[in-house]
């Protein structure tokens, strides 16, 4: 698919930061329906992406965030990403919970 622009990613993150969407995403693996909602909301911003593109971008952002986060946790500052702060606002709390779960 075509490359995501900064404003497209921002819009995706804005939708993703919706508590309702977050809860749905955290609670399910079969999330096609959720990403169809996300894609529909992006359309309202004039962004034409299908649910698969949204899901792929979501997964990639989440993966990138986690690798930057764990690099930071291990004291490395070399890794960074464009939307880290925005994602940290969304994922910071949930990844901490998961981390503490996997510790014990």
Automatic annotation (TrEMBL):
Span of domain Myb/SANT-like DNA-binding: 2-90
Pfam families: Myb_DNA-bind_4
Gene3D superfamilies given in the database record: Homeodomain-like
PANTHER family named among the record's database cross-references: HEAT SHOCK 70 KDA PROTEIN 14 (PTHR47595), MYB_SANT-LIKE DNA-BINDING DOMAIN-CONTAINING PROTEIN (PTHR47595:SF1)
Protein's UniProt name: ZSC29 protein
Protein's organism: Thinocorus orbignyianus
């Amino acid at each position: 698919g075509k490359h995501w622009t900064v404003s497209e990613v921002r819009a995706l993150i804005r939708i993703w930061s919706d508590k309702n969407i977050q809860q749905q995403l955290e609670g399910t693996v079969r999330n096609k329906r959720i990403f169809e909602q996300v894609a529909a909301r992006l359309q309202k911003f004039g962004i034409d992406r299908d649910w698969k593109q949204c899901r792929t971008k979501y997964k990639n952002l989440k993966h990138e965030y986690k690798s930057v986060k764990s690099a930071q946790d291990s004291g490395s500052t070399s890794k960074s990403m464009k939307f880290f702060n925005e994602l940290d606002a969304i994922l910071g709390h949930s990844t901490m919970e998961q981390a503490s779960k996997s510790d014990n």
